[in-house]
Design a protein that fits this description.
This protein has 201 residues and is mostly beta strands. The protein has helices at residues 2-19, 169-172; strands at residues 40-43, 47-50, 59-63, 68-71, 81-86, 90-93, 97-99, 115-118, 122-125, 134-138, 143-145, 148-149, 153-154, 156-159, 162-168, 180-187, 197-199. A hairpin with an 8-residue loop joins β9 (122-125) and β10 (134-138). The N and C termini lie far apart (38 Å).
Length: 201
């Protein structure tokens, strides 16, 4: 109980400090390089995930600034809160969110290290197809290793308006998975300039 009180007080202080210059019906800041239909967002400041769409609701956890989250739906103009599905389910204020930054270097499979980091939640499948066998869902910031072909080029496959990238499961999840899997790295129709993979830091 005491922890919940401290968490709630910390949350209100953080939000109040940031929100002084923000209109009541603040909208998510957009950048030209991002699609309005992308579900990936990032926090501008330390902020809370609430159990209900209200600052008087219980705070589930505090997210640090620059944390990537996944929206459960695209909020309408004027919405003060939006439900999120990752890194945990709950509600967050739209005023503290911005679009995720596009990684232009990863728009297409590139030459280099096999280590990659998941940008936003993505489904791992057994085949390069939206009908491929479901393996698991990879959350933001998960580290994976792609398979490389001759010339250290990322192994990829174009299918169903997506560029799919093959993942080395044994190396990515030692002791848990084996063989290979595929993720849809780029949506060629809705977000052709964005990638679900980034280079490891």
């Amino acid at each position: 109980m005491e922890f919940q009180k401290l968490l709630y007080i910390f949350t209100l202080v953080k939000i109040a400090t940031f929100a002084l210059g923000i209109p009541v019906f603040a909208q998510i800041a957009q950048t030209p390089s991002n699609s309005s239909q992308s579900s990936c967002r990032a926090t501008k400041v330390d902020t809370a995930i609430f159990k209900e769409p209200s600052t008087s609701s219980s705070a589930i956890r505090i997210l640090p600034a620059k944390t990537n989250i996944a929206l459960a739906y695209i909020p309408a103009s004027g919405d003060r809160f939006v439900r999120i599905k990752s890194p945990t389910s709950g509600f967050i204020q739209t005023a503290v969110l911005r679009f995720c930054q596009a990684n232009n270097n990863m728009s297409k499979p590139t030459i280099g290290s096999a280590c990659r980091q998941i940008v936003q939640p993505v489904t791992l499948r057994g085949q390069p197809s939206i009908k491929g066998a479901f393996i698991t869902t990879l959350n933001s910031n998960t580290i994976v290793f792609v398979n490389l072909v001759t010339g250290n080029i990322v192994k990829s496959y174009k299918s169903e308006n997506y560029i799919w990238v093959e993942i080395d499961l044994a190396r990515s999840f030692p002791g848990e998975l084996s063989g290979n899997g595929w993720i849809a790295n780029t949506d060629l129709v809705n977000t052709p300039g964005l990638s679900n993979l980034a280079y490891c830091s």
